[in-house]
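Let's practice the habit of predicting before peeking. Look at the sequence and jot down your guess about where helices and strands might fall. Then scroll down.
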Amino acid sequence: MNKIHFIITLAFFCIHSDITGQPSLNFDLKKPPKYESKLLGSEKTGNKKFTVPRHFFQNTFTHYNYYFNANNRLNEIVARAKAVNRDDYTQLLPFYNYSLQATSTFRNDLDSVIYKATAGVLIHDLRNDWIDNLYLIIGRAYYLRNQLDSAYLTFQFVNYTFSPKEKDGYDKVIGSNEEGGSNAFSISTKEKSNIVKKVFSEQPSRNESLVWQVRTYLAADELPEAAGLIETLKHDPFFPARLWSELEELQALFFYKQQAYDSAALHLEKALGNAADNQELARWEYLIAQMHEMTRNHDAAQKYYDRSIRHTLDPVLEVYARLNSIRQDRNGDEKAVQNAIDALVKMARKDRYLLYRDIIYYAAAIIDIERKNPEGAKVLLLKSIKNSMNNPTQKGRSFKTLGDLSFNQKKYTEAKNFYDSVEVQTVAPGEFKTFMERKDALAAIVRQTSILERQDSLQRIAAMPAAEREALIKKMVKQLRKQQGLKEEDPGVLSKGSFESGNTPLPDLFSSSAGKNEWYFSNASLKGRGFSEFKSKWGNRPNTDNWRRQAVVTRSLEMQAQSINGIMRVEDMPIPVEANYDALLNNLPLTPEKQKASADSSEQALFALGKAYMNGLEDYASAINSFEKLLNDFTATLHSEEALYNLYYCYLKTGNPAGQANVKNMLAFKFPKGKLLALLNSKTMAQSPDSALQTKATRLYQDVYTLFIEGKFLEAVRQKKQADSIYGSNYWTPQLLYIEAVYYVRQRKDTMAQEILVKSMQLYPTSPMFSKTSNLMRILCRRKDIED
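Done guessing? Here is the structure:
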């Protein structure tokens, strides 16, 4: 025991043989209320000699009563913020698994940390070794409160106040080469490396405050200041090795914020040792893999996805890591892609992945989309929806992707149905605006398309010979009654009127031939017979108010008319209250009045459909078809002038000068004094009538174009992707694709540039940009020879 006491005493003298406190430290901390009338230890600093026993006790009390508790509370706050974080593994992960917005919600706890650390400074001798550590705690608390200006001032205070001193107590000039007499410039504090010092004391916090200053700069998006301080510390000969990994972490964050993902991944790999546990390690490895994948370094991406699988305890992260790892092993050929899809489907069949089958099928569908197999992707997405158990976000994502596929195929009715199945709260915030705009546009298009198809079918049936029409309607009545669970209609009775006009009384549902005075609902056989008779007459009905009428209204609203070979299918017929021959026959335009009403309905729908295509989706090809059909089928239409004007505009946007000239001549012939012709002749036509969407799109793409011209390529590419997700292909697309390709040529990313150029030439062969695009493609293919 005496030997142990001797070793501890010797270690204490070795550690504290020189006083590292700040006898001249000035502070500007407000006293807590209960200490306002007291002369505190910090105010009495220097009044007593700082003896070895005093030094020991001051260090011990400050460390364990104040620093230890405050630091633990701070770590608990970060842990709670991490616990509420939910990562979306389908998107690029945030750099950290918590945010300052989340930590700032624990304001009361952070206030208590600041109070505890402030008290620790005020009531103790400022010459003890833990004062700088307490100030660092205060700075970190301000940082987690998202008060970055206060955090920066606190870290800067530590930097200046605890900087290296001359022997006579004067400050050394920060950034000079006086330290050690070398020629190396340094701003760091040289730390003592003896073993005893490392084991029995906390290192000075000044070097850590410099690191936290970098972190504060990055949180405030002051990237130039952060870059300058990072480079200074990297070349500082006295910057301690223990903080190198933290500096690498912050440099990775710096590149991450600039979307330089290859550099961010490189530095984050060197900082993996900073991860608090295996789960955070696995998350960072997943992020590194994502960044490698974004820069098309698929081998490195697969390596880190696999490492993430080995370290994670989160089954969701494991599933996504496995999925993405499989996606990397493609080698660019069709067979490898199919192998990846087969591996995913095989994975989905395993019982251990039962809860994640929707995610797995969705990932397989994305691979199919990437290899341009939309029909195969749809099959997999439907399987994803079918296997969705308790994951509404994934289910909504699958429905939305199905809608996007149908939309790109111009199957607008199908796309609207899929979009309607998406719960809006599951749509990502960044996609919500695009989703709602597209959904609203499709609603208008499908509404008019349904009117056209319904009227066309009714007109075709009305034009049939009477015998064929009667046979078709009877067949429809039979199918409708079968769908509603009703008995087949009596062949001799074609309408409900004939039934109602008869003298036969309705049977008494509650009558009984038993002759007993027994209550109906107490007789099981009577109840059973009554239920059967009710069902045979009325079919299955929901247990709701107004069940008879409501079922008809609901079905009528949901009915979307589609025709096969020009004849309306029975399931698409408007359902009358009673499914009978007379009711269906009454819908047909057989009289002159009904024929005119049907034609007017088709005329109005065609015009509205053309405008919906043009202004809602900027689908000019479909708009041209609608306007041309309107003008051909309804030569006397009241919408002729505006339809011709809109047709001219659509030809302008699709680059068809011959069509423009023809339409302009027609407009001049039919409406020589019309306002719209005058507008064309004035050459001031910039957009279609009431095209607010076009105005907004033009403004947005002009901003993207300006960013490209100014050389802000990363921001331009980001905004272009966002605009394309909203507006799809448009007038600006070939120009912006060309400029984007030029950017990648400058970055010497020739493969990406060639992919963009090929895409542009395939999609826009009639664009004025085609010749420039093909010329750049030829030059790029000969780049090496030209440079040599």
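How did you do? The CA atoms of residues 186 and 237 lie 7 Å apart.
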